Amino acid sequence: MRRFLSALWAKLSNRPLALCDSGDVDGITSAALFLRKYSNGVVVLAAPSEVNRSWWIKRLFWTFVADLPCPGKALIRADHHRTNKPCAKVEFYDPEAPCSALMAMKAFGLEGDPVANSLVKVAIETDTASVTSDEAEKLDLAVRFASYNEKIYIVRSLAVNGLGSLNNVKIRDLVNRGYRAKKLMLEIASRIPIREVINIYSPVNLGISYRQLTIELQHRGAKMVNILLRLDRRTFRYYCGADRSSPYDCTQVAARLGGGGHKYASGAQYKSPFFSPGKGIEVFINTLKTYLNTDRLEVLELTGNSVRAMTY
């Protein structure tokens, strides 16, 4: 409701209105670049799955859309996902670009702005899973575990103060929360046997970043990591990560589950039939069997402190 009211207020007050991805640093920095260009603008954050199913998002005309499927009515769109089809009046779209924030910076003519360049740098690091700077790690940790209101706070702070926002007390607290979750993620990763392809099912949310877990397992030697998280009785979230030197293509799995992304990092969110909630797991297993061309699939089930191997 807050997002709808924010968008409605922007329309009634004739303010520029942006729709950006809520899930990662790329979307958050793209939103910050929008506010750096339009200080009176209004930002709405959403996940790709929300764009596809929300009637009011599709009804509005957006000044700017970044790092998301186009809702249908947009003036400017900045993106680099092969699975997101262009549709805005002005497209800054390059599937070879390392992040959407780079395209947003070009869209707003901010290439000469040091703050914009520093934000794009960390967006490139996080979106290519090649985090090397302290700033990129901290911003990534802050964003991953922030609530919607906290993400909007981060966007506004970045727009004015750039990476200096990391010295903000409130954002430092978010970073520390992220470090605690990362520690738990590393403990879980240490219990997972490394295979070329690792398939994981988590029936409950363990309070970690599952995207971060895919990256960590890749660093430890996996060539492809598939994770299914059960969000509620019927809703499931799929995460995929693949090594760039491998033949695996995450979009081939994510697209079959109704999602998309990049060859080496994709995701999807879907619901199982109302009367058959268990079908959500079957869809995941059967999709992987088809893609991997196998009749037997090992799936590791994460439950609290235990990892149990199941064969389907």
Automatic annotation (TrEMBL):
Domain of life: Archaea
Organism lineage string: Archaea, Thermoproteota, Thermoprotei, Thermoproteales, Thermoproteaceae
Residue ranges that the Swiss-Prot or TrEMBL entry lists as coiled coil: none
Protein name from the UniProt record: Fis family transcriptional regulator
InterPro entries from the UniProt entry: DHH_sf (IPR038763), Oligoribo/pAp-PDE_c-di-AMP_PDE (IPR051319)
